[in-house]
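User: Hello, can you help with two protein structures?

Assistant: Certainly.
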Amino acid sequence: MSEKRILLASLLKPINDTRLYEKLGLSLSKIKGASIHLAGYETPIPAGAPANIHFHPIFQFKRLSMGRLTAQRDYYRLLQHIRPQLVIVSTHELLLPTLLYKARYKGVRIVYDIQENYSLNLRSQHNYSWPLKHLLALSIRTIERMCATSIDHFLLAEHSYADELPFLDNRYTFIENKYKASLKLPPLATPVSLPKTGQLRLLYSGTIAEEYGVWEAIELARQLQIVRPEVKLTIIGYCANSHTLAKLQQACQALPFVEMIGGDKLVPHQEILEQIPKSHIGLLPYRPNASTFRCIPTKLYEYMAHGLPLLIQQNPLWQGIVEGNDAGRAVDFSRINVEELTQELSARNFYKQGIPTTIYWESEEEKLLQVITPLLPKV
């Protein structure tokens, strides 16, 4: 039997990324006769990977540098070296070199794994000046439109993308970022309640950014100190914005109850997960923004899988999942009555019906294999 070579590539995600490796990569490695290749940003290669998964940490550059252009050249050389029959692209910048590869070699199939609406993110967030962010957003959408007819299928991480992206043409499948445990979790005792006295540990994990409410998390911890002096906030993840990072580092030095892990470097996903069972409340204090309002953060599923009570920003999509499963409470982080909130949370039980089975990756793996298998050569 000939080898079925699949390349999964992301320009900005590390090769040990949760979705790239732990979800898509490991799930596809179950296909009989498949050889899985992962190309991504340089980080340590995961230990204990299946023998048919191969890692190519070929990207290493500053986000705003010429390295992003030379990375596309390096990626095209990797394509020619591996000669995959199926390429799953997770970054818009890799679409054009992938199409060039497809034009040169017969029978190549392309899947675009859309993890973010990049164009909307640029327009809605404030990382660049107004003219630059709109120019970048237009260029991304132009590339996606140009490439769309040559893409065989689209994987959508969010349901909202089906409405937001005009080039999909019904060739898509929802593959959500549900929880995938690297190790089987022990049975959790439910319902869950918060400690009425002693230390109360808050957790903010993942991407560290103003849009994701890192300052709101710190302000909540500061106010909680008034009624629960032993409050501790752990911030763990990576902050790409150097200005925000410098301010955070100063804040953490001035506030002994705030601890930051990572910040200036990527934190292995397993280290982030290890903080969850050590915590009492998981925070999702996202600022209302068009780029995130209709998306479900991966950490929401991660917190729920560990039975962690949540405090989320008011959002109808999130509230249906969180409050519908007794997993936490929606609040407006810009105006919280801390005394009332503390009393309410202390009196509540969470996860009274147990951990919901709908939050796990297994259902997404089944859909993924149903989509990808027919795209592979019949050999």
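That covers the first. Now for the second protein you mentioned:
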Amino acid sequence: MTEVRGTDVRTQTFRPRSPLFGQLAVATGVLTVPVFAVLYWISVPVGSWLVVVALQVLVMLIVGVGVIASRSVFVQLHDWGVEDHWPFGFTSRVRSSDVDTILLIDLYTGNGTETVPQLFALDGRDTLVLRMRGQIWTRSAIQQVAARLGAPVVHAPVPMTLTDFTRIEPQLLTWFERRPLWAVRAPRTLAASADRRVFEQ
């Protein structure tokens, strides 16, 4: 569950779902153990196993650094807006006055049956200034951030697949979420009046 910590009545801190990064570390271990087992089986007879050991240590260090860095990830609500904190000291400050529109949608996950909420906060030029993914944050945290920003909220009437959303708003997604065949941008963004009417039907 997301940890909520309030320093006063106007400030709240939300942290990612607690099992998330632990699950990633476990998944990495499950995936790498068979790979390294094969590498050891191949390298030991030829005497190159020290290279495999070094590679395994490197992978473990990277995973360890990732888990430790994840502890510095949080979103903090203030009177003036939102602070988005990411690993290694990266911080994005989004003032409520800078947000023109908030898109709240539910995206289907990979298995095609479950959905997760997604928040996209856009400024007056339809530029993305804040995104919150339901894979990381709880629905409650996302809703409270949207409420604190105070901008008009555009809801998708039904859940969408990543494919559908990419066809409409590819610029709001990261490069690894987009696909070349889907990268045709719509003439106007969802924040435009016509698209907003479609979303609110």
